Amino acid sequence: MRAIRQVARRARGRPLGRLPRPLLVTLVCLPGLAALALVLCADGVERAATARALPSAGSRHTVAHLAPRPPVVPRSVWLADLADLAGRTQPPPRLDDRVVAVFVHHTDSPNAYDCADAPRVIRHLYAGQTGARGWDDIGYNFLVDRCGTIYEGRAGGIDRAVTGAHTQGFNHRTAGVAALGTFTAGTHVPQPMLDAIAALAAWKLGPAGIDPRSTVRLTSSSSRSRYDAGVTVSLPALAGHNDGFETTCPGAALTARLPEIRRTAARLQGRAAATTVPAFAETLTP
Per-residue pLDDT tens for 258-275? Predict the structure, then answer.
């Protein structure tokens, strides 16, 4: 038994594949040592599996900068009283593998609404996009009211990478968040709205390891966008609608606050303050 304990001590911590062949034969063949061999085998398998599961130190997609999920009101709240849904079948959502950029919009609707009335405003937007425009659903993945409440927009799942219809040419691997209101030059943008957009962007970009202050390279899928189909461009990871499409959206006032939103989102991810914009995250195509 003393010899067995000495063998076990020498083998402990050593990967099984490195054990001398005579020792392996001894462990398996000698009476009373089969159980010890099984323990060592199991230990070696467990260590190998753990090593494969851990990301490497230089991995691009680390999870060190995950931000908490902010509260999101489900779409069932604003759809509850929509009579137009009678007999309407919602098609299955289109999904991407991850979100690497967030586009900010404004809805070009009145600003003087009570926050309790936000679901009615969203129903109006939904009716316009699915009615007059003939879309299969509202285009934005999320909407934020002036009080900072975040609403789920397009169907498919709050936690999933749902392909929206918010920025023509750049809907894949991106999320669209719309600020309820019109934010042209000189318009006040409520701070709770800015903070909510930042929290949403920090959460959505975290799993892909994207710094909200960085830029990513995206490839346009439509020549109706600001760039011809097939053209790869560098865009902010937290961008305005007008970065990808010829439009004044999200309005000059909200556009001017995007740098602040990016800094807040980066802080929520636990990132240190940066004096320079981070390098390109990576090249991503639809």
Answer: 999 999 999 999 999 876
Q: Note the pLDDT of residue 91.
A: 86
Q: 77 forms bridges with which residues in the sheet?
A: none
Q: Which domains does the chain have, with CATH numbers?
A: 2-53 (no CATH), 72-284 (3.40.80.10)
In the predicted structure, residue 224 carries a pLDDT above the cut 50: yes
CA–CA separation, 36 and 51 (whole Å): 23
Number of CB atoms found within 10 A of residue 165's CB? 18
Is a pLDDT exceeding 70 seen at residue 75?
yes
Whole-model pTM: value is: 0.76
Cβ partners under 8 Å of residue 154, min gap 6: 93, 137, 138, 139, 140, 141, 162, 164, 165
